[in-house]
Design a protein that fits this description.
CBS-domain, 208 residues, 4-stranded mixed beta sheet, alpha/beta, 31% helix
């Protein structure tokens, strides 16, 4: 695995270094500008890999509409991202990265193994456990590097308490679950953007 630097200008990738490829090689590009977690990895492959993954959505559009109407405005459920995409824990990291890039997401839910625990794989997991460890993403499954157990919050939790928990655990996103199943995901960016415009809500009128 070789790592080179690149710049994403919004439309294309501009490499900032030459790519020293001899024979078959795996390249992961780290981006110096833009969102690290939405475009931190781009692999170049010269071998034959598995068929592209298709996104698996846990809930359909009608269920999303029902959920959107169910949760109060200043709660986790009110602003969470309801678009959940999952992959089996046996999925190659390469395939999961391709799916994440296609869907424009920076993390992906990992379906339970025998222990029944859901997990999550983020771009930081890939950078830490694949790039920095000099491992090939084609030879590692998402179940091996995903974070377990899944850090969870309930959709009716207020945004202030959710933020405190994320700070306490030093994490940037948490899964939103209901009856043991993921129904959404919320990030520090989601909370910041909402609170900046609307505040914390009537329960915390003076919170900053």
């Amino acid at each position: 695995m070789q790592t080179i630097r690149g710049h994403f200008n919004g439309r294309s990738i501009e490499l900032l270094e030459e790519v020293p490829i001899e024979g078959e090689s795996h390249v992961l590009i780290t981006f110096l500008d833009g969102s690290l977690e939405t475009a931190a990895a781009r692999e170049q492959r010269l071998g034959t890999f598995s068929e592209p993954l298709q996104p698996l959505h846990i809930y359909g559009p009608e269920m999303w509409r029902q959920m959107a109407a169910k949760y109060r405005r200043f709660t986790v459920g009110g602003i969470m991202t309801r678009r959940i995409i999952t992959v089996p824990h046996t999925t190659q990291v390469t395939a999961a990265l391709n799916l994440m890039r296609q869907q424009g997401i920076s993390s992906i839910m990992v379906e339970p193994q025998d222990d029944g625990e859901w997990g999550i794989m983020t771009m930081r997991d890939v950078l830490k456990q694949i790039v920095m460890a000099n491992r090939s993403p084609e030879e590692v499954t998402v179940g091996e590097i995903a974070s377990h157990p899944l850090i969870q919050v309930s959709p009716d939790m207020n945004l202030h308490d959710c933020t405190e928990r994320m700070i306490e655990l030093n994490i940037r996103r948490v899964a939103v679950t209901e009856e043991g199943r993921p129904v959404g995901i919320i990030s520090d960016t989601d909370i910041f953007q909402f609170v900046e415009e609307h505040g914390w809500g009537p329960e915390f009128p003076t919170a900053v």
